[in-house]
Design a protein that fits this description.
Elements (H helix, E strand, L loop, with lengths): L11 H30 L5 H5 L9 H25 L5 H20 L6 H26 L14
Helix pairs in contact: 1-3, 1-4, 3-5, 4-5
């Protein structure tokens, strides 16, 4: 069998490691953004800000800061897709997986399925932002020119 250009070998251990790494990066950067933005609103980061569906909203200052933190986190995690996944075709898969596990975490933390419209809107927008920007960044890397001649050029 001839070698294919960019052949992809299915490696479950690599996929699980990438999922764990991206999920850890998601919560780490979200905690960092909540802490940084919390200094503006004099609130510290808490699990309630991360997992509660009732805190996200536009009517209260802590709710607005949480929404900002989630959106900034989506942009930060798009960089995580670039550095850890590096495949444009897989960005949507990993993004949906991260947000699906976050949905499960919210469901377990609150003991009920998230039901507020704001929570769903924020997470749909964050999923779209993370996937689109991550895919754009990965495609820029994938579409770079491949140098064919690695020998140094001589001055003639």
């Amino acid at each position: 069998m001839a070698a294919q250009f960019r052949s992809y070998v299915w490696d479950p251990a690599l996929i699980v490691a990438q999922m764990v790494l991206l999920q850890a990066g998601y919560y780490s950067s979200l905690g960092l953004w909540l802490a940084l933005l919390g200094t503006l609103g004099s609130t510290g980061p808490s699990l309630h800000q991360v997992f509660s569906d009732e805190i996200l909203g536009f009517s209260t200052p802590p709710g607005r800061l949480s929404v900002m933190a989630f959106i900034l986190n989506a942009l930060t995690c798009a960089l995580g897709l670039l550095y850890f996944i590096r495949r444009g075709k897989q960005c949507l898969d990993f993004t949906v997986t991260v947000h699906f596990f976050h949905l499960l975490g919210c469901w377990i933390y609150n003991s009920h399925f998230p039901s507020t419209l704001t929570w769903w809107l924020v997470h749909i927008v964050c999923t779209a932002l993370m996937a689109a920007i991550g895919e754009y960044l990965c495609m820029r890397i994938e579409l770079r020119e491949i140098p064919l001649n690695s020998a140094p050029k001589s001055n003639v």
